[in-house]
């Protein structure tokens, strides 16, 4: 499934969350990732993220779709990390 992940973490945890997300998804810009994941990998990512988070302070938002064809990406300004294989 196609995923867009956005996080907002405390300073002490942001580096660990960045490393975790880069293992699973493509970095787009500050705290934003996208890519294809299996359902199992998504569950694993969520489990690992929860272990890093302070759920009273931090947030993690994940948008998913089984079909990435409905999504159109439009970048205004400088694209932080170009993905050649994106739609």
SSE layout and pairing:
Elements (H helix, E strand, L loop, with lengths): L1 E7 L2 H14 L1 E4 L2 E5 L2 H14 L6 E7 L22
Radius of gyration: 13 Å
Gap from first CA to last CA: 14 Å
What is the CATH class name?
Answer: Alpha Beta
* Strand count: 4
Strand order of the largest sheet: 2-3-1-4
Task: List the keywords.
87 residues, alpha+beta, Alpha-Beta Plaits, 4-stranded antiparallel sheet, 26% strand, globular
Question: Can you give a write-up of this model?
Answer:
- By secondary structure, the protein is of the alpha+beta class.
- The protein has one domain: Alpha-Beta Plaits (2-Layer Sandwich), CATH 3.30.70.
- It is built from two helices and four strands; from the N terminus they run βαββαβ.
- It has helices at 11-24, 39-52; strands at residues 2-8, 26-29, 32-36, 59-65.
- The protein has a four-stranded antiparallel β-sheet with strand order 2-3-1-4, covered by helices on one side.
- Strand 2 (26-29) and strand 3 form a beta hairpin.
- Helix 1 runs antiparallel to helix 2.
- The model has no long low-confidence stretch (mean pLDDT 87).
